[in-house]
Amino acid sequence: MNELKQERTKLFTDIYDGVKPSRIPIRVGVSQEAAIDYCKMDLKKTQWDTNAYFSFMDTVSEQLGCDVAPVSMNVRTPAYYQILESKAFVMSSSGVMQHPEVKSMEPEEYDEFIADPYAFLLEKALPRIYPGFGGDRIKASLNLAKAMKADEDYKKAQLIAMAKINEKYSYAHFPLGGITEAPYDFLADVLRSFTEIAKDIRRCPEKIAEACDAVLPYMEKCAVSCMSSKYCRTMIPIHMPAFMNTKQFEKYYWPSFLKLCQFIYESGSNSQLLLQGDMVRYIDYINELPGNPDVRHEYGDMEEVALRTNKKHIITGLYPVTMLETNSKQECIDYAKKAVDILGRNGNYIFNFDKPILSLKRNSMENLRAVIATVREYGVY
């Protein structure tokens, strides 16, 4: 490990160990769609061309002075979803993978799901949103085998390209230990849909609570792996609480989610939370989570978040990614300094934007370079 890689790695291990790092670590996520578009490649074709992965990752990486590889891994491989005839994830006309509003369970089926979640998912839910699983069992088995092989091949190609990028640019590298969902979010995303679960919380809230408990073991299974450690963490995107009132959250969302986070911590790892929507009102709950999870906020007042967050926890996010495209370079620099001054004062801050970077159009790349350079120089303790 060369000196630069050691330095960058130590920034993160220090902050995960509860030690103030020498400067604020920088972790940004440029989507592959944005990177491909920036390189003026055809988005639809390039996602199928494994030989192109290194090229667009390299072009973006050489522009930026991040501490970890800036181009994110694409977990939604088009081949996988096309083979399974997916209704849950489909490619738009522009080539971007999108998640339409779908449901795979009716309200009268809660009891059946609660009795045996695995059987219900396998026999009813998945064939409804992935027709490639339906019909003839032999054909369904072949489709599953082909889809899994395609997914493995495309992800392997990405990992090989990313390993080369990490080596070339001496990036710190902490692979995820797992990716999972809070049980309530899983019900909304996979089974009932956003619209329907918003009705269920009023029609049959106790069934939701039972379903969350029933599916919890499966969310735990996704949460940890042989890669898991206090440095290789479990990503959990959290979105439904922003659309719930506090009483609903406390009674139906929080109990199973807390158990999930406790399981991850007791397994020797920790959580990397993506708080989608404005969830500042839930900070006191988040503060109860064990260990020192990464807590990435999309929205919120920086002063309030810094003041109220458990000092053992790690703050990230809160820099509006839209500023890269809509604001001047100086405004972007000034906001970066403001974030460093407010969020970085306690040594528990990793710089990142509120959301992934989905576009590098107009002056976005120039502003992004300026922001990263500012944090790297101004964020020294």
TrEMBL record:
Single Gene Ontology BP annotation: porphyrin-containing compound biosynthetic process
GO molecular function: uroporphyrinogen decarboxylase activity
InterPro entries: UROD/MetE-like_sf (IPR038071), Uroporphyrinogen_deCOase (IPR000257)
Top-level taxon of the source organism: Bacteria
Residue span, Uroporphyrinogen decarboxylase (URO-D) domain: 158-378
Name of the protein described by the UniProt record: Uroporphyrinogen decarboxylase
Native source species: Desulfosporosinus fructosivorans
Phylogenetic placement of the source organism: Bacteria, Bacillati, Bacillota, Clostridia, Eubacteriales
